[in-house]
Amino acid sequence: MESWDEDGVRGRLRQMAAADPGRERFGADTHRYALAPALPEAEIRAFEDAHGVELPAEYRSFVAQVGDGPAGPAHGLMPLTVPRAEAGEEWAVDDEWTEDRLPGRLAEPFPLTSPRPGRIGAPADALTRGTLMLAEGGCGMYVRLVLNGPRAGEIWQIDVDWAGFVPVSPGFRAWYTDWLRRE
Predict the structure, then answer these.
(1) Could you tell me the mean pLDDT of each successive run of 10 residues in the chain, 183 residues long?
(2) Is there a contact between 82 and 119 (Cβ–Cβ < 8 Å)?
(3) Which pLDDT belongs to residue 94?
């Protein structure tokens, strides 16, 4: 399993929070620069077994070593498993998060072999099978992790109305650390 510098990630999040006390940066009012505890190996394995998938190593190691969201790009990382209340607060999950967890959906083949830029004529559901929603960017934009096929491990963004479904990062580590550096 690829290792993360948990202290480095959490330290950088503390710096980001200190530099943005009013939570003015995009998404900060949602994720609050906070990370939930890491998930136990047994919980991650149970998720994989229940959905018939193997999570890409970079993402799997993040939720196992660093945390299960929410601090992250866009409005923050969605939790892998059922959201837990932290300090009396609830994580909001939307229909995309719930749809991902329907039986068999994550294990289906990812239908695209190349980007699909521009307005999408097909229902988004037909294109997002075999991907896990990582973050919601607002206005119908979602960031998704490809789980299987030749594009497995890549991060793609879907915007049904304008930009299509296109890759935005070669993997979870690059996507997340780019956000940490950029902010």
Answers:
(1) 90 97 95 95 96 97 96 94 57 72 92 87 80 91 94 94 91 98 83
(2) no
(3) 64
- Nearest Cα residue to 94 out of 155, 142, 42, 127: 142
> Is residue 1 in a domain?
no
Position 87 in a domain? no
Residue 33 lies in a domain: yes
CA 71/CA 13 separation, integer angstroms: 8
How many folded domains does the chain comprise? 1
Q: Which residues, including other chains, have CB under 8 Å from residue 143's CB and lie 6 or more apart?
A: 73, 74, 133, 134, 135, 136, 137, 155, 156, 157, 168, 175
- The domain of 20 spans 6-81+92-182
C-alpha of 138 from chain center: 14
Nearest to 9 by CA among 69, 79, 56: 69
* CATH code, 30: 3.40.1580.10
- 86 in a structural domain: no
Q: What is the pLDDT of residue 88?
A: 46
Q: Give the model's pLDDT for residue 87.
A: 43
- The DSSP output letter for 22 is T
